[in-house]
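Below is a complete specimen:
___
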Amino acid sequence: MRIDILSAVPNLLQGPFSESIVGRARKAGVVEVEVHDIRRWTTDKHGKIDDTPFGGGAGMVMAIQPIVDAIADLQSQRDYDEVIYLTPDGQRLEQSTVNQLSLSGNLLMLCGHYKGIDQRIRDHVITREISIGDYVLSGGELAAAVLADAIVRLIPGAIGDGESALTDSFQDGLLAPPVYTRPADWDGRQVPEVLLGGNHAAIEEWRMQEALERTKRLRPDLLDEA
């Protein structure tokens, strides 16, 4: 898979994509992640990529020209399964969307900035709009990092134990059950006996019951949706 990201502040994304799972996956050749500075494509002699909004009002709007030219340039080099715009008013990101996107070959992400992008780009160029929550960030870069991280960890070879990602919270519509490791007795606090007995059927039943209980207590809305 290849992920290309268009950003007004590309240096902001150096850390998230050079460390941990995504960094290791890039080094191993499992995924390519490239961050591009939108200013490379602007024709403004001062390097501007924004302009005032029609109708007046506070804030600036990302200009059409550098965005459209950047997307067209990248699309001339490869086909993209989706052109994704990270924006607070997009579709709320959920695990099912991440699962679907992880099967893609190439993805192009556009990070919003200022008051956003011209609506005509959203109507005619963008194929999917995604939000990571009902709040506003300074730009779409951190949202792009979240989305890319969630996708990359599902790609075969990105993590050592591929089955691990399939047992995370939300993969089956529930929160994950509690987990424990050594020592079995910590300051008088014991690991549940069922986890020590080696009865895998009993362990799986315990985990399912704990997942249901935790979801009911912490995220009852997930059970309502199911």
Remarks:
- The chain has a mean pLDDT of 94.
